[in-house]
Amino acid sequence: MSFVTTDDGVDIFFKDWGSKDAQPIMFHHGWPLSSDDWDAQMLFFLSKGYRVIAHDRRGHGRSAQVSDGHDMAHYAADAAAVARHLDLKNAIHIGHSTGGGEVAAYVARFGLPEGRVAKVVLVSAVPPIMLATERYPGGLPMNVFDGLRAGLAANRSQFFRDVAAGPFYGFNREGADVKSAVIDNWWRQGMMGSAKAHYDGIKAFSETDQTDDLAAITVPTLVLHGDDDQVVPYKNAGVLQAQLLPNATLKIYEDYSHGMLTVNADVLNADILAFARA
């Protein structure tokens, strides 16, 4: 397996497939998952001639289960360590959910200053901030995130099963095509990681105000969100992202869930490919 060691000594697992001469696409996964959540995208874009890279966030998947650094600043620095190690240039960075926050932080703080980024895609992403604040009163109340922490601490395995079987993919909607293998795979990825990283990560994805990160991203950015996202409501996320980004294109998918990259991969992949080739 391939790892890079960060400046603070954390081993980060990554995958790197395809020709080193091809344009790179780097994928950033959501909470509490791993790079495996990008299977449908990595295989697709590899087949289209791209070099595809994905890493496991610290404390997630196969990366080191360290006690500290579970915040957007460290997530961005860890992504930068992978990009530097592989010397990625002219890269497209794609982030889902918490990974969208990681992308915004990485691109604004490292990728653009180092001249490594060509385009950005944010999918069901958490910026500018999920928590309701004076600046963003349309966000979610703190008790929502306290409930996530309580559920995780009480029985992480059952909690992860319930999230995947319910709101994440919209499997709790009447008439939903419930895919048990998708639920099992979400649970598997979550349980590979560290309970400490997952617990601390709730604060990272909910309370980090990334207004400045979004404003600093000048490259073309595609914002994709489902209007039936029960995890990251689109009006306080995708819609605001498009307003704050200097060079954004917004697409809202009717009735699509937070996990649309998996259950609607055919549609999402085609739209992202068109953006990448434009």
The number of distinct helices, counting runs of at least 4 residues, comes to 11
Radius of gyration from CA coordinates? 17 Å
Low-confidence stretches: none
Write the CATH homologous superfamily.
Alpha/Beta hydrolase fold, catalytic domain
SS-derived structural category: alpha/beta
Topology as H/E string? EEEHEHEHEHHHHHEHEHH
- The number of domains is 1
Give me the side-by-side strand order of the main sheet. 1-2-4-3-5-6-7-8
Brief synopsis:
The chain is of the alpha/beta class and 278 residues long. It has helices at residues 39-47, 72-85, 98-111, 142-154, 156-165, 180-192, 195-207, 211-216, 238-244, 260-263, 265-277, and strands spanning 2-5, 11-17, 24-28, 51-55, 91-96, 117-123, 221-226, 248-253.
How would you explain this protein's 3D organization?
This protein has 278 residues and is an alpha/beta fold. The protein has one domain (2-277): Rossmann fold, CATH 3.40.50. Helices cover 42% and strands 17% of the residues. The protein is built from 11 helices and 8 strands. Strands 1-2-4-3-5-6-7-8 form an 8-stranded mixed beta sheet, sandwiched between helices. The radius of gyration is 17 Å and the shape is globular. The mean pLDDT is 98.
